[in-house]
Amino acid sequence: LSNTGAEDTIWPLRMVFTLLGGGPGFRLNRVPSMVYLKDRVAWKADVLRAMAATPPTLLLPAHGDPVREGAAAHVTAVLS
């Protein structure tokens, strides 16, 4: 998960990320998930199950600003 802004990357990388389903805003960055996740469906189900058991109040994404309000709702929306 990342929460990047346009100011976080140079424009050529923003273009590449956009073409690959990434880009600015709070989202699942598909580039690392293509490399690191063997079973994306199982990973998403596991994350959603863990959040249902203990909803987060703060999210520190891999890149970008922390999500301080509505962390569980934001993650659920991104993964759905």
Output the keywords.
80 residues; single chain; flat; mainly alpha; three-stranded mixed sheet
Give a quick account of the main beta sheet: strands, pairing sense, barrel closure: 3 strands, mixed
Overall spatial form? flat
From N to C, what is the helix and strand string? EHEHHEH
Strand order of the largest sheet: 2-1-3
Tally of DSSP β-strands: 3
As a percent range, the share of strand residues is 5-15%
Helix percent band: 40-55%
User: What average pLDDT do the residues reach?
Assistant: 82
Q: State the end-to-end distance.
A: 13 Å
Describe the protein in words.
Helices cover 49% and strands 10% of the residues. The protein starts with a strand and ends with a helix. The longest helix has 14 residues, at 40-53. It is mainly α and 80 residues long. The protein is flat, with a radius of gyration of 13 Å. The protein has a three-stranded mixed beta sheet with strand order 2-1-3, with helices on one face.
List the helices and strands and how they pair.
Elements lengths: L1 E3 L6 H9 L5 E3 L2 H7 L3 H14 L9 E2 L6 H9 L1
Parallel strand pairs: 1-3
Antiparallel strand pairs: 1-2
In short:
This protein is 49% helix and 10% strand.
